């Protein structure tokens, strides 16, 4: 366990250290320049410039903003995970109900299986939609070329797929292949898919107000530039190391918020949406294969 702890502590993948390192070096370099100036001009007092870093109000505001920034970013991350949990649960239930409750002949089974596969297509299309990526070969195994062209021309691809699913269910209930009670339940799951999709879009299109981010960056900048003037009179040349460590802590916490603010991307700290979509596709295939038993 101890070795694992140290391996995780020094792990670079998923760490914000490589991202903030240039900024840390800039602040440490500035602190070294201040130490150099103090060495050659010791009669000039520089501590007055660093007194702000000891101010209780300044430190309190900086700490509160860092906590708020991190909590707000994690709330978005967790809300995104719950929204995808909603999508997964309703896709599984809808695939299960469509498979076991639709009475169709042998010739109509192919259409039913194709409609169930639209659920996997919905998950993949939602992933691409949230990442603002175009449909390439992601749906080739699920949809025909004509259907893919239709989706590429659609204004909202995931919503278009829910319309196809709703149309299929409506036709089945009108043909008495689905019991009305089952239809109501399945339509509820379809509505929940739209709700989960909308929750993801709400997170994506409602970023943290820029004023908070700008103000926090300014406070960190003021603190890291003022700190060397306070430390240089006490620890001389070690001020650069101390400022580097302090800036590493402050910049690291701020960067973590930046990393998880949008949880739908490709970064290591984003939600594992690719794995979720793979799992959903496997669940859909399992539901379709049930009739083969």
UniProtKB/TrEMBL annotation:
Membrane spanning residue stretches: 20-40, 52-72, 212-231
Places the protein is found: Cell membrane
Keywords linked to the UniProt accession: Cell membrane, Ion transport, Membrane, Transmembrane, Transmembrane helix, Transport
InterPro entries: YneE/VCCN1/2-like
Membrane topology reported for the UniProt record: Multi-pass membrane protein
Source organism superkingdom: Bacteria
Pfam families: Bestrophin_2
Name listed for the protein in its UniProt record: Bestrophin
UniProt lineage: Bacteria, Bacillati, Cyanobacteriota, Cyanophyceae, Oscillatoriophycideae
């Amino acid at each position: 366990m101890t070795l694992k702890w140290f391996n995780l502590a020094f792990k670079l993948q998923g760490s914000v250290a490589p991202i903030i390192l240039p900024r840390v070096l800039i602040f440490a370099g500035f602190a070294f320049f201040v130490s150099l100036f103090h060495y050659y001009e010791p009669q000039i007092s520089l501590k007055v410039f660093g007194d702000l870093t000891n101010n209780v109000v300044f430190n309190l505001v900086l700490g509160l903003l860092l906590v708020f920034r991190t909590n707000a970013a994690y709330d978005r991350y967790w809300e995104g995970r719950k929204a995808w949990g909603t999508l997964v649960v309703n896709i599984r239930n809808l695939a299960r109900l469509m498979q076991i409750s639709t009475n169709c002949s042998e010739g109509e089974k192919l259409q039913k299986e194709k409609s169930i596969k639209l659920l996997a297509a919905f998950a993949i299309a939602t992933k691409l939609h949230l990442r603002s990526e175009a449909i390439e070969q992601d749906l080739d195994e699920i949809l025909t070329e004509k259907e893919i062209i239709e989706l590429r021309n659609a204004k909202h691809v995931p919503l278009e797929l829910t319309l196809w699913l709703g149309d299929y269910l409506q036709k089945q209930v009108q043909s008495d292949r689905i019991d009305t009670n089952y239809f109501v339940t399945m339509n509820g799951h379809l509505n929940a898919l739209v709700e989960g999709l909308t929750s993801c879009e709400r997170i994506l299109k409602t970023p943290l107000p820029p004023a908070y981010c700008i103000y926090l960056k300014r406070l960190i900048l003021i603190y890291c530039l003022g700190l060397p003037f306070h430390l240089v009179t006490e620890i001389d040349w070690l001020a650069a190391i101390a400022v580097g460590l302090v800036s590493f802590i402050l910049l690291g916490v701020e960067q973590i918020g930046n990393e998880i603010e949008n949880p739908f991307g490709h970064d290591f700290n984003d939600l594992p949406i690719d794995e979720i979509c793979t799992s959903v596709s496997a669940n859909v295939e399992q539901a379709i294969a049930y009739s083969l038993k």
